[in-house]
Amino acid sequence: MSEQLDTKDEIHTYPLLALKNVVVFPETPKSLFFNRPQSLEAIKEAVTRKRPVLVVTMKSPDRDVKSRDDLHQMGVIGRIAKVQRLPNGAVQALLEPSQRASVLAVDLNGPFFTAKARPVSSRESADLELPQLVQALKHEVFNHLDMEKKHQQIQWNEELDRKDVPAGRFADAVAPMLNASLDELQDILETLDTRERVEKVYTLLYKEIQQRKFEKDLKARIEEQVGKRQKEYFLNEQMRAIQEEMGESPENAEFDAIAKAIEEAEMPEAVRETAEKELAKLRRIGLQSHEATPVRNYLDWLTSVPWSKATEDNLSVHHTEEILNEDHYGLDKPKERIIEYLAVSQAVGALKGPIICLSGPPGVGKTSFAKSIARSLGREFARISLGGVRDEAEIRGHRRTYIGAMPGKIIQTMKKVKTVNPVLLLDEIDKISNYFGGGPTAALLEVLDPEQNHTFMDHYLEVEYDLSKVLFICTANDLGTVPLPLRDRMEIIELSGYTELEKVHIANRYLIPKQMKENGLVDDQLQIPGKLLLEVIRGYTREAGVRGLDRTISKLCRKAVTDRLKSGKEKKIRLTRRKVQNYLGIAPFSHQKLEQENMPGMVTGLAWTSVGGETLSIEVQAMKGTGKLSLTGKLGDVMKESAQAALSYVRANANDLGIYGKSFKNMDIHIHVPAGGTPKDGPSAGIALAGGLVSALTGIPIHWNVGLTGEITLRGNVLPIGGLKEKLMAALRANLDKVLIPVQNEKDLAEVPAEIRDRLQIVTVKHVSEVFPVLLEHLPIPVKEPEGENSERQGAFVPDRIESGSSQPSGMD
């Protein structure tokens, strides 16, 4: 129930006192200070003529009263009970407010302000819950407010403690005691509903209580922390005083520990002198100095890096051969080179030799081969990934003048292995960023030079460190991106891709047992027949290594374990073709002979990439035109030039190849290599391009089961190519029957596995004229130019325009 205006109260004119930073409540005496002339005159008028005054709070304490809008619309009527003039001219007045009043009009003219106001009275609410609410407010007031402090501001009336005290009266008495803002207090003053007024006071009181609790808890935590720190400080000072009294100190103990570490590190004499010099500097400046931390860190690195501790090498050739054969299938040439290396080391009595670089496509076992070498020698092994390294400081370290400086990857790894003769694998050396004239590649020149690395200088250590006892093994996928000076310091050992038969042996010996163990399959609980494993290799993997095959076998094992758990039967699972298809889905690679029809201008070339060999389907199309040559398929500059050389040979020998020379001026030739998103480059598609041109221009179909590779010259000579084994493996994967290779590559067939040589008919050619009888269904019939026509042999044909949709590709031979 709301409080209402008392209609019996009349409107009167009162002297007006405008208050800046205080809100006055009825029946709550308040001592106020005034110094404005208008306020002093209003007090004089009220005291002299015994008139009541109207006290109203200003809306903005920083602004003078100019109009009624500068004052709140609700004030309090009261009487001046006591006045005391202060030495500075101000007046202290004790106001005894009686009741609320609504301001109706304000007169700011004259010696003092006046206002017309109507007194406002209220009746208590008849709400049944109001007494309980007032009692709760009393409880909070008496339990949580500091009454003694509040007594200085307001005289607490003991009559308020009675149960029959009006609720509004009690709320008006508590409100001035709260730590609330002027707006909040004015809102309470203007609230005429008794229950609503009590609830607002209770809300402000609760907020203040919570704030006090928070401040109290915060103060307690801070005092506890400060007390704990002070206690630790005093205890440390007492301990320091006791140690000094006994001739000991923490600093001396730490200095002695560093000196002992220097003694036990067995450093070279020059390094020892540097360490002792830094220790003397540390003693001089003290551990509390801000300069002590860099010196302390530097001494930690000097004493942590191994200087003389080494593991004993196992140079037994038979032991190493046994370990390598146990861990790896095939890889005869790399194993042979390592055995020779150890045999010489055993004869000499010291293990010192060239830097080894294992080069080959991903997944052939380069990293695991390096681990096997370390295991066979009994040495510590560590791997340093160089992929994406951009800064020389990552190899040589940072200067100690920089904040946060630390040694490079080499010294960090030496600290980790704790021996001077580990096997360090520099992985992905072909992926390192190469900057002209410097960068991390230049920093590796000293590391990988046996004649220089015994005096390797890290920028952080600034002392010579001997790396000559370290066996460095590098890995790379593509040596073409390794700078020549760096490549010259390494002995390259090629790890070529595996044949299908080798993959079957690797899967049976290594991959299947490993995956069965990792997936909880034991005692032949999963059986993969040999023929089915070969189908998995052919249908679900197409790679030079076995990484994808390992993932495929892992998936088969997971599916088998899931089936066994779902069925609840502890039975062996024998894979069938249908189960493999259910487990792995449709085979992504098809080895069926799709093109069984001989077609003109459609020839299969063989290419080498950093991930193994690939087949290239080259399409040549002749059409009416103006003598334009178009090359598409994202071809590189070398492959474009190879196409021009092939075309020049064909045009120069056009009549012998059954082509009229004048026809070149009236037709366009388009050469396209599908998979246009893949960059292609290299000269080894020369004879394939020549064969495709002759087929397209004569209309003679090409045998679809013949692949060929070889570089062509303008006179038709066939030059040797690289990556023969990988290319032949790609031809075998593509189910080709016959492959043409340069005669100069015949010597490389000795390194090709017998499995490949037996399944492919390999034909060597010396001149491109030897290609056409094997590649084409039949030889073209030579023609003779009509009289008066110029012979095409007078010069090689160069197209008027060459159109190509290519961009700069990556290397492909």
Automatic annotation (TrEMBL):
Q: Which reaction does it catalyse?
A: Hydrolysis of proteins in presence of ATP
Q: Which GO terms describe its cellular component?
A: cytoplasm
Q: Where is the composition biased (Polar residues)?
A: 804-813
**Which Enzyme Commission numbers does its entry carry?**
3.4.21.53
What keywords sit in the KW lines? Answer: ATP-binding, Cytoplasm, Hydrolase, Nucleotide-binding, Protease, Serine protease, Stress response
| Region feature Disordered, mapped onto this chain | 784-813
Where found, per UniProt? Cytoplasm
- PROSITE patterns xrefs: LON_N (PS51787), LON_PROTEOLYTIC (PS51786), LON_SER (PS01046)
Span of domain Lon N-terminal: 14-209
UniProt-annotated catalytic positions = S684, K727
* Domain Lon proteolytic span(s) in chain numbering: 597-778
Give binding positions for ATP: G360, P361, P362, G363, V364, G365, K366, T367
GO biological-process terms attached to the record: cellular response to heat; protein quality control for misfolded or incompletely synthesized proteins
Induction note = By heat shock.
Question: What Gene Ontology molecular-function terms does this entry list?
Answer: ATP binding; ATP hydrolysis activity; ATP-dependent peptidase activity; sequence-specific DNA binding; serine-type endopeptidase activity
| InterPro entries attached to this UniProt entry | AAA+_ATPase, ATPase_AAA_core, Lon_bac, Lon_bac/euk-typ, Lon_lid, Lon_proteolytic, Lon_Prtase, Lon_prtase_N
The subunit field of the Swiss-Prot or TrEMBL record says:
Homohexamer. Organized in a ring with a central cavity.
* Entry similarity comment: Belongs to the peptidase S16 family.
- Function recorded in the entry: ATP-dependent serine protease that mediates the selective degradation of mutant and abnormal proteins as well as certain short-lived regulatory proteins. Required for cellular homeostasis and for survival from DNA damage and developmental changes induced by stress. Degrades polypeptides processively to yield small peptide fragments that are 5 to 10 amino acids long. Binds to DNA in a double-stranded, site-specific manner.
Query: Do you know which HAMAP family this protein is assigned to?
Result: lon_bact
- The name this protein goes by in its record: Lon protease
Q: Which organism is it from?
A: Sulfidibacter corallicola
Q: Which gene encodes it?
A: lon
